[in-house]
# Entry
Amino acid sequence: MSEQSELLKAVLEIQKLLELLAEPAIAQRDAKLRSELRQLVGTSVPKQKSVFLMNGERTQVQIRGETSVNQGHLSTLVSNLNKAKLLVGDAKLPKLAISIPPNFFESDADSE
# Structure
């Protein structure tokens, strides 16, 4: 079992490295969608945190609980993201259609 655990750990590290290497190409491919995402989310830290939790595994209630974002703001955000084709699947379990790096909403990340 320990050998499998070590192998899984190594695979996850390789995945992280590949994501780092691929980020510039992903940013270029998704530039328009990323720009629209920034516009829709704005500078609200709770909304920004909410977007990072949109992985298709959390309900809007769970996201609100983890971020303290206002219920109406989250509902409106999810609706707007859905209209902009920035979500996939069921809006009750929102999942971003694009990948974003952890520093996506930081001011120095604007130069991607």
